[in-house]
Specification:
The chain is of the alpha+beta class and 139 residues long. It has four helices and six strands. The chain has three domains: 40 residues, no CATH class; 38 residues; 48 residues, no CATH class. The strands form two sheets. A three-stranded mixed β-sheet has the order 2-1-6, with no helix packed on it. Helix 1 crosses helix 2. It starts with a strand and ends in a 5-residue tail after the last helix.
Length: 139
């Protein structure tokens, strides 16, 4: 995982000194087409089939998430619907109008959790991230 240093000030007490923290940074953006190409290169499955399966998976996920189902995807993890709402004084006052955000919550599976435990942390600069993007290593 790539990290950069970020200077943080105290928003509430301005007399406190600024602190430096490590924050993660994304070094690349993988789009849907590139993901399909990589899956195709890993196995003997044609690109069209990979794309069809992923498109079908997205459609099914949308269907089940819209009815409030938790979707378990094996080692990948699970996706469940969630929401944020404003608090109310009485239970009767809680209606759909107090919901201000609907979201999907992803919980990684064991394989992804183990990968994160064993992956290292590398400090990067903007220059090194840009040079990585111009010539990324082959998987």
């Amino acid at each position: 995982m790539a990290v950069v240093t970020k200077e943080m000030g105290n928003k509430f007490i301005s007399s406190f000194p600024n602190i430096n923290i490590a924050t993660s940074v994304s070094v690349a953006d993988i789009d849907f087409d590139k993901l399909c190409d990589q899956v195709t290169s890993q196995d003997f499955v044609p690109r069209g089939i990979v794309k069809a399966v992923l498109d079908g998976m997205i459609d099914v996920l949308c269907t089940y998430a819209s009815i409030g189902t938790t979707i378990r995807l094996g080692d990948f993890g699970s996706i469940r619907p969630g929401l944020n709402s404003r608090s109310q004084d009485t239970a009767k006052a809680v209606t759909a109008d107090v919901v201000y955000r609907q979201k999907l919550i992803f919980v990684p599976g064991m394989r992804l959790k183990n990968m994160m435990k064993t992956s290292g942390v590398t400090r990067v600069t903007i220059e090194s991230a840009l040079s990585y993007l111009s010539s990324p290593p082959r998987p």
